[in-house]
């Protein structure tokens, strides 16, 4: 879906209608926990999710573990990963996630970056390309990813 005003309602309709999705790219989409949860619950075969320039509401990261077969997560051109990720105890890991790609993402919000690496703790490969706000703390959070 490209540069649209798709919200949780649209994401839920998409998820219910396309249950066999293996790869999904959302560009400029809105949404929240509920939309990502619907995708995870309905699209059980989803292996790759790309969010480009997303406008997701705070808390969407905590729904990512519902994507139980997700192997690759790509965040591209994101001004903020998750504006309000919530407390660490509400963040579960995506157990089969292997690859995390971050390209042209804003990495200055440390609570958001920490939450991302907690959810992605099983990744084996992380790629940073042209990201802003990378510092020592960012790489300290990468150590949360136990297999890197």
Automatic annotation (TrEMBL):
One of its GO terms (cellular component) is SCF ubiquitin ligase complex. GO terms for biological process: SCF-dependent proteasomal ubiquitin-dependent protein catabolic process. It comes from the Eukaryota. InterPro entries: LRR_dom_sf (IPR032675). This is Uncharacterized protein. It comes from Opuntia streptacantha (Prickly pear cactus).
């Amino acid at each position: 879906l490209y540069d649209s005003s798709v919200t949780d309602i649209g994401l839920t309709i998409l998820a219910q209608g396309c249950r066999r999705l293996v790869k999904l790219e959302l560009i400029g989409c809105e949404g929240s926990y509920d939309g990502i949860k619907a995708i995870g619950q309905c699209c059980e075969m989803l292996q790759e999710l790309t969010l480009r320039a997303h406008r997701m509401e705070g808390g969407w990261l905590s729904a990512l573990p519902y994507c139980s077969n997700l192997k690759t997560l790509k965040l591209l051109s994101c001004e903020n990963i998750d504006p309000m990720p919530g407390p660490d105890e509400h963040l579960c890991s995506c157990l089969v996630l292997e690859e995390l790609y971050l390209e042209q993402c804003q990495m200055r919000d440390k609570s958001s970056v920490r939450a991302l690496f907690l959810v992605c703790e099983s990744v084996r490969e992380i790629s940073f390309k042209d990201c802003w706000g990378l510092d020592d703390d960012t790489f300290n959070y990468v150590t949360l990813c136990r297999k890197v």
